[in-house]
Amino acid sequence: MKFPGAVWAVVPVAVGILSSMGSVRALADPVPAWAAPATVYEQVRTPEDAPAPPSAGQPSLPAAAAATAPAATPANSVIDAVRAKLADKSRRASADQLEALTAFYASRAEALWVKDGQLNDKAAAAIGEIGKAAAYGLDPSAFVLPALASAPSIDADAETELQVSVAILKYADHARGGRVDPLALSNILDMKPPLKDPRAVLAEISNDGSPDAYLRGLHPKHTGFQQLKAALATARGPQVEEKIDEALLIKLPEGKAVKTIKPGEEGEDIVLLRKRLKIDAQSPDNDRLYDARLEAAVKEFQAASGLKVNGQLNAKTRTALNRQGEPKKADPKRDVDRIIVNMERWRWLPEDLGAFYVINNVPEFMSRVVKNDAELLKQKMIVGQPTWPTPILSSKMEFVIFQPDWGVPDGIKVKELLPRLKRASGGDNFFDSFFGGGSSGGARVLAAYKLNPSLNGRPVDANAINWNSVDIRRFSFIQPAGAENPLGLVKFRFPNRHDVYMHDTPQRGLFAQSFRALSHGCMRLDQPRKLAELILAEDKGWSSDKVGAMFQAGGDVTLTKPVSVYLTYFTARVSEDGKVEKYPDIYGHDERLMSALQGRAVRYNAPEQNDAVSAIDDGYDAPQATQKKKVAGKQRREPQSAGNILSDALNGLLAN
Q: Could you report the per-residue pLDDT of 391-402, keeping only the tens digit for each?
């Protein structure tokens, strides 16, 4: 993905002049702020008509820059001009941003970024940070930054003041996931980015002495995001203006014979480490000592590199330090767009995932339990088929249900059960021969599934129902708990509008498959007992024996402290050895998200519950036809999946 280069030319010039002269003439933008393109999310949140161009009586910035003699202007005159510009609702900004700007400048006596035709140091720091947007997977062209002008005027100062503030608000919005509304792309991308109130952004950054650091702090601090940020820099290769720092050429010893060095220890490697990080010793007489100052620098490097922050000079830290000094070459095999869309997905998650949580990565077919940033459990997972996709959402697990019964969802009743009941009760020759009679076929089909039919809570005789004329959704079909129940022996419920959950399964053989998008939307777990033990030990202090007894006796457990559950869709992540791992885009979300980030949003509506049960499981997964996939120019066959609990003979029926 390439970004326009025009924006890059602005920031170095402005910052360079500031560093040499201490201040700079007011920056005016040749492209008025009202002409700035709106993001996809802004279009979704504030569907307005295209704003009008400036009126004939409103001076343009190039015209304002025509004045030649610098002259001080009263601060309140600039503020009055800012307020007048904000009264013109055609300015391109979201409604909440305009409201925040209006309230902010209504309470100010002077401008925040401009004074007497000059940008202050805080403005230069903020502009400089915004100019680095591409490093975070953002589009620099989305932010209208001021351009250098030669002379002051009240109107030019007011326009520059607003341009800086609007750019900051937009940057804060994009850093928190505001470029795209996930639900606007698909009804199963049920995520709500943690956007920051524009009023809070203006209040906080105006009181912050380091606005550049403030803006950096708006991005996700999750290790996964920081690792992808580093991978993005590697994938793009070096920039033209990049200069190699000589300190980066210093190499630390690596290998199995090299031991981890901890703070307080001494060694010759510490001398190299000091030169590499440019950190002087606290005691000039002993630069071989791993002191507190060096420890702080190592921790900062580890955090920025997505490593475990422990302050130790271990093997991973040595490797990361040495790799940073190697020339970066663009790797055509690296998928820059893929990295960017996955960075964007990190922005959709809460700032704090919690001390104890479950995170399921759908394309990876993996579920993890994390406590205090340590992975306690990693297990295989079966997710929804491409035609019955698992939704992406955040929720709280509230219930652990042992020995659950299973009720057939409406979509499965209509799409899969009803056709079989119609054929069976209608005297289909195949069913006649298999079940021994057409009139009793319906009851026998339900008996084979061990389903108990009822209407309004009262049992019914399936053979007495004309399934060709009734609405099957009025009936309930319940399968009691037991070894053949499709939910297995335990179910984990976290309320959500899609009614998906995690559960056990009697079909243990399916976990041997590499491609595990096989369910009707819910998630089947390879180690459900281990998950139950971890959750109930955390919440109730229960022993594994007590949890085991619940598997035998059954019962519902309500958690005292609901556990955060995140259903994610990361098709790229960085492994512990620093390599980018990629997973199949099984639902096509990558392309849709990248198109939206580039301003070409295409909405995808996954089947609703009563249509094709996009997010309801589970037990009637009809055997799919043997899937063929191309691998290195050859065809390989995936094992056939039979996501139901019938015998081989009944599996054959379901395939029809």
A: 999 999 999 999
